[in-house]
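Case study 2.
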Amino acid sequence: MEADLKNRSKRQGVRDEGADDLMRCDLHVHSWYSGPADLPVLKHIGRECYSEPVALYEQARRRGMDLVTLTDHDTIEGALALAHLPDAFVSEEVTVLLPGGRQLHVNVFDLSERQHERIQALRRDPEALFAYLAEERLPASVNHLFSALTGERTLADLRLPLGRLPLIETLNGSMPEGHNEYARRVGRAAGPRAHRAQRTLGQLRSPHRRSRAHLRRRLLRGCA
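Prediction:
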């Protein structure tokens, strides 16, 4: 999930005016610390990612990312290994547990160790977790909401994050483009709040303001 539409705009023939002014930050990145792959069969034989945090940071910077974060599954250990580096911030992908063994994956951005500990304590209670994220004004997005790879979901499961979280992931490079487009359509249908979030994750035009603080303010627009 990259805060940059330049590549997609080129594919769709959209004019790329001002692309050099886009803030770039990949907002969905795993490292070695994510542990075993969270997929049938693969979880028994492989990891989510084999890259070390510093190697990911260096690669992201080489590829033109203005800011760098990691969103490992239910841990900030990898992100903390980068916290001292320029333009890096701490994030994680939270596994939110639902009744019947179902789950949602939610990215939480720019959090502290204290907040991480509280989030992990609340992730079995979605309502309490989402209330805490709002109270702490933590930017958060629901990820790959319609992917069968993360298990079955009921209609109520889909409504829950769309009604409580400010952001929905609409550009995930590991998902088919059809999945991303469907997420964008749902974001628009969910109303102005979700549509703002979609634009936030997708465009982030901010000349001369490529800072962590500015990114946080843009991600929080859905909470304001």
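Strands lie at 68-70, 88-97, 103-109, 140-142, 167-168.
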